[in-house]
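Quick illustration, no need to memorize.
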Amino acid sequence: EGDAYAAQVYAPPQGETEVAIARIWSELLGVERIGRHDNFFALGGHSLLAVQLVSRLRQALGVELALAVLFARPVISELAASLAGAARSALPEITPAGRDEVLPLSFAQQRLWFLSRFEGASTAYHIAGGLRLIGRLEREALARALDRIVARHEALRTVFVQGDDGTPVQQVGAVDAGFALSAHDLFGAADAAGELERLAALEASTAFDLERGPLIRGRLVRLVADEHVLLVTMHHIVSDGWSMGVLTRELSQLYAAFVRGEADPLPALAIQYGDYAVWQRRWLSSEALARQGAYWKDALAGAPALLELPWDRPRPPEQNYAGAMVPVRLDAGLTGALKALSQRHGTTLYMTLLAGWAALLSRLSGQEDVVIGSPVANRGRAEIEGLIGFFVNTLAVRVDVSGSPSVSELLARVKAQTVAAQEQQDLPFEQVV
């Protein structure tokens, strides 16, 4: 089966469109020299970067690239040719909304607010992480950097209160609200590692008050003179996995600047999360979203309501959120083999793993039709890439495992379903349900 991604002789991009695509690829993939025969996926592209590519092309060229076209024609010269006939982008820009009116919740936020009313549900939506800080720590610079992040991102100083009609609304706190940071010293403690673990668990599980805030907090733990751990916990209603990356990056840049006695180096944010929430609700009444709704109605028609897995204990009558994380490690050899398999079939690693997971679930349940919930970053707009907030969406990917398909056939089915679902990822999961 020859290698679909065989190395090509370098040829520079030709024409404005190829040059524009190459510049965007270079930014997204971190590759300096991009040629017109280069393949997006061979250079490290994946589904998440593909969605960002669509967003950047919309911004730079005003065209709407279908993800399916990128997967079918991932080489620059072919992609540029196919863009000539691409539809012009019809999506409205996200613009600042006035702050004199009430700010609605986004649909995802509304679901979490509703769930927070149930016993134990809210703590299941905590995002907890930690940074190990090695070397001499300038505490004042760190505190200033954290305060600045809260000042930059309205989401981190937002609380959720019920309006007169019972509908929750967002209330943004003062710009000088500051970051809620406490300190803990374990220098010389008998079991510092065990105590750190206990503190991390406590931080992660302590409840947030959505009406009073703050919805982000941190604890700085000193282990020895030149080693600290910064524990940061946020409620999911104001953050997501992508946001953790934004926070870490900005903290690093701000701290470095403040240590050197310099000013804040970060460019001002053009829009905030509240602007996105207003835009999302306005856009949901548009024709574009009606088309996405029609896709999901069709894609999930007659889908099984439950996956009948052979549980080793009965399902409780009421969900109690007593779950856990189970890490799974794939060694380098297996990872390499999975990547090679993906390359041969023109799938991303995500699609290949999803196909394997679907096959396993089908085998265990005896069902030939499985629906798998899969998170998607939902950052398909350049304006929101640098924001901290709750954007992540869930896609219900339906996989047909009937007819004893070969690995090749199953991968093709999963690829088609995944690309279609990701092209329709703007419709909030709440609306799909």
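The radius of gyration is 24 Å.
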